[in-house]
Amino acid sequence: TTETRTTTEKPATTTTTTPVAVMYFLKNPGTGNTPFQDVSALSTAVPDSAALPNYDTSYDAVPGLRLLPTSSGSGETDPTMRHTFVLNTKARTLTGTAKVAVWAALDESGTGSATLHAALFDCTASIRGCVTIGERTAEIEAPLSKGFEPATFVFDGLNHSFGSDRRLALILFAEGGRTAHIGYDADHTPSFVALILE
């Protein structure tokens, strides 16, 4: 008697890894209250300061960073009207969806609201020769007396490759009739950029 056995081979399986966004927090250029500096860093270090420092003691005594309104858009060069946060992307590709969350409030003086802009750029290490990746806006309506509130900016469908000598720059600026204040690098105002870099 001849016995016949049939074996079934299982198909090979492949494992796909879904890229995960990494949170990069807007950082204080120093420790505690600091004089104004034009460029700050983006870092994975989680904010742990209980109090929000003043990041422009040379201009005012208000916690956070002041952004005077501009009418020049992302091309504004006056450092009191825009602020830049930089990340070394190390020749990687920005893909998928990016999210920017910035805690903001309006100055007590004036009336109306302000429009906060978050713009992503591909720049040289010296923040020159910048190429626009995307720009989003959010209305700021809460005054400082009511505290900072989060403004969210979503960038969909990204597919941008950085050269080895390039940087990702987040530039924040405000338009409208009122000065805006932004809070970051404190545990109750953890402003961040969430990115997928492959």
Please characterize this protein's 3D structure.
The structure is a single chain. By secondary structure, the protein is mainly beta. It has no helices and eleven strands. Strands 1, 2, 3, 4, 5, 6, 7, 8, 9, 10 and 11 form an eleven-stranded mixed β-sheet that branches. The mean pLDDT is about 90.
Distance linking N and C termini: 60 Å
* Sheet having the most strands: 11 strands, mixed
Secondary-structure element sequence? Answer: EEEEEEEEEEE
Poorly predicted segments: none
The structure class reads: mainly beta
Percent helix: under 10%
The count of β-strands is 11
How many H/I helices?
A: 0
Rg, Å, rounded:
22 Å
Core attributes:
198 residues, mainly beta, 11 strands, globular
